[in-house]
Write a structure and sequence with these properties.
about 250 residues, Alpha-Beta Plaits, Nucleotide-bd_a/b_plait_sf, 8 helices, 2 domains, RNA-binding, single chain, four-stranded antiparallel sheet, RBD_domain_sf
Length: about 250
């Protein structure tokens, strides 16, 4: 069915994030990442997984060729398992907030983390899609909107563009690296191998073709890599992967 036939469900996407528990209330993602090594140091090692098994079919049909309405519908159907990302969509925009520059000015506490503001129309309404540098920054902007700009609607959103490089979150020392590399290679050639950042519990994979990174993202998002620990995946620019990986 086309995006226009799902108008009611699509508009509810702006109001469902809080109910799904995606917004961290007491612990930020940075704190969660920092707490993980301490927990393992006390001997609470997660159940070992020797081999990762990808799903039999993709859990997302995301493509940069889809309309934003279609991307949003797809995103809301994904089993996100409490994970969040670095994209937000703002709705109920008054006339004075219908430019990217004005939205950027309004978000002064997080301005330095805003990468792009794209003005779009979603189900006939003006919205803003905001890309931030990290999921932590997106969570901070989400809270800022909820607390200081209650006239707006805010929700986590899908990406708008794909790149050949993927950020892989929740990749700690207990995730079987050989198996992870093998699973990723099944979607296309990975250039120069995976780049691991153990201190940030993440890794980066750069594919030779963007179609390969899209296929990997659409299939492996939410893959269980340890008991109750799931793979988070996002597109990043290669320069971001080299300089400041997303949280």
């Amino acid at each position: 069915t086309g995006a226009g036939n799902n108008k009611g469900r699509g508009l509810r996407a702006f109001q469902s994030e809080k109910d799904e528990g995606l917004i961290p209330k007491k612990k930020t993602e940075d704190e969660a990442v920092e707490a993980a090594p301490a927990k393992k140091a006390r001997g609470q090692q997660p159940d070992a997984v020797s081999k990762l098994t990808p799903p039999s079919k993709p859990i997302s049909r995301w493509s940069d060729r889809l309309s934003f309405e279609e991307q949003l519908e797809d995103f809301m159907k994904m089993p996100r398992r409490g994970m969040y990302n670095r994209y937000l969509v703002l709705g109920k925009l008054p006339p004075e907030l219908r430019t990217g520059e004005n939205i950027w000015r309004l978000m002064q506490p997080v301005q330095k983390d805003i990468v792009q503001v794209e003005m779009l129309t979603c189900f006939g309404k003006p919205v803003a899609h905001v890309t931030l540098r990290s999921a932590t920054a997106a969570a901070a902007m989400h809270r800022l909107c909820e607390q200081n700009h209650k006239n707006l609607t805010v929700a986590f959103a899908p990406p708008r563009k794909a790149t050949t490089t993927l950020w892989l979150g929740n990749v700690d020392d207990f995730v079987p690296r050989k198996s992870l590399e093998s699973v990723l290679a099944s979607y296309g050639k990975v250039l120069h191998g995976l780049r691991y950042l153990p201190a940030r519990t993440c890794a980066f994979a750069t594919f030779g073709e963007v179609s390969s990174s899209i296929a990997a993202r659409n299939s492996l998002y939410g893959l269980e890599v340890q008991k109750n620990q799931y793979l988070n995946i996002d597109f990043v620019d290669d320069v971001d992967a080299q300089a400041a990986p997303p949280d």
